[in-house]
Amino acid sequence: MRQKFSKLSFVHVTENLPHQMSHFPSGFDAIIDGTYSQLCGGNNIDDYCIYQIESDNIVNHIAWYHEDQLTLLPNQDKEKAEQMIEDYNFNGAD
Q: Could you tell me the strand order of the sheet in which 29-35 lies?
């Protein structure tokens, strides 16, 4: 695997985003949906689409955060991530 984070990984988004991303949320936990390459094609494996988590629920689906803005969380659970995404898609997605 060439990308830094695999799909369904739990990560934390930094508080300190660059000025051009001032409209993006920051300082929250998330689940990796995939890299630009995985979702759109091409060879960009540095930018990620993520699911934003609040109070153990997904509240948003956001793209594109750079890998250096994400940190892998110590607790990983792919089954929990899949269930959270399914719940979001069936109940919470707009």
A: 57-66, 47-54, 29-35, 10-13, 70-72
Strand, helix or coil at 55? coil
% of the chain residues with pLDDT over 70: 97
Ranges of H-type helices in 10-91 = 36-40, 78-87
Contacts with 61 (C-beta within 8 Å, 6 or more apart), sequence order: 33, 49, 50, 51, 52, 88, 93
Those residues with Cβ within 8 angstroms of residue 54's Cβ, 6 or more apart along the chain or in another chain: 28
Amino acid at 54: E
Which residue(s) pair with 32 in the sheet? 50
Rounded mean pLDDT, 26-42: 97
Q: Tell me the pTM.
A: 0.94
